[in-house]
Amino acid sequence: MIRLLVSVCFIILSMFSLPCLANSDYRAPFWQLNGHLQTIVPYLLPPTPAQTYQRERWELDDGDFVDVDWTELPQADISVQAQQRPVFILFHGLEGNSQSHYARSLIAEAKKQGWLGVVIHFRGCSGEPNRLPRVYYAGDAKEISTLVQRVRKQRPHSPLFAVGVSLGGNALLKWLGEYPEQSRQWLTAAAAISAPIALKETAHSLDTGLNYWLYSQTFVASMKPKALAMAERFPTHLDKQRIQAVKTVQDMDNAVTAVLYGAQNADHYYDLNASKPWLAHIQTSTLILNAQNDPFVPFESLPDATQVSAAVTLDYPKHGGHAGFSGKASNGQSTWLAARVFEFLNTQQRASLNAD
């Protein structure tokens, strides 16, 4: 009896420290019948017009560069009051950029909210090849740290919010877990959308069955020319013939990503870069938003409440596809995706202000 009472007390107490499980009200448009349509339609028919940006190039310590697109260039000489304006940082997905459909939607919402927005392009994704024999990695926590720190230095008085989509979401989550104190000091809150938290399972899913024909070939068609150009510039690093033979995302990771990363093969690279083992260490308030019918990310690969920290909110709507969630929010103004993300970020912003 005593053991039973102790167990019950423990369960009751633990409820106050368990991660939050959200229950979104997302409803896909009736004609988008499955996860494939919910993924492809917003990609082909972006619900938000193209956004205008002001580009800034950041030179990196290793001699390379990244291009970042701001809604407005940050000014160093503006007042402290103006610099307290929130900054929305977006990390895009595989082969994405600042005009990806989800970027348009989220940046448009940031503007509507009066926030300063910035899309940080990973190396080689801004339209110009990067200088070094290096590609962007799915779990490059050190790179995320460098880039967020750069924003923090430019906006020392602003609350910062970071959101990552797909591959960018995995990289962001890994940084949040691998550098928990640093990220908590720099960010007010974060969100990851359709992140392939268990990289190996997602990569295998992408290259299988219908996914291969719908998605894997598209990614390969985008990545292969870049990889071949890099092999021409750095023939001692990459095997051009091996790249020419690439047919799947895993082939590309075996021929290029794992080689440049220094991993044994693609699966080894996925193991080293997956964010899932790091989720229990996150200290920053973080939303993880994944649709259960995401054709890229198997639902069974996603973490449950026991695998993440108390700072993490898990939100797994039944529908939405991969980085899709098309359709309007209840206010009729924003996309559902943008409204959900900013609802979370604004809630954390208010909580942070109340705590101060």
How does this model look, in words?
- The structure is a single chain.
- 43% of the residues lie in helices and 12% in strands.
- The relative contact order is 0.16.
- Mean pLDDT is 90; it is low at 1-18.
- The longest helix has 25 residues, at 209-233.
- The chain has two domains: 20-197 and 275-355, Rossmann fold (3-Layer(aba) Sandwich), CATH 3.40.50.1820; 199-273, no CATH class.
- Strand 4, helix 4 (101-113) and strand 5 form a beta-alpha-beta unit.
- The protein is globular, with a radius of gyration of 20 Å.
- It has a nine-stranded mixed β-sheet with strand order 1-9-8-7-6-4-5-3-2, with helices on both faces.
- It has helices at residues 2-14, 35-44, 80-83, 101-113, 141-154, 167-178, 180-186, 199-206, 209-233, 240-244, 249-261, 266-273, 336-355, and strands at residues 20-21, 54-59, 65-70, 87-91, 116-120, 160-165, 189-193, 286-289, 312-315.
- It is of the alpha/beta class and 356 residues long.
- Helix 5 crosses helix 6 (167-178) and helix 11 packs across helix 12 (266-273).
- It is built from 13 helices and nine strands.
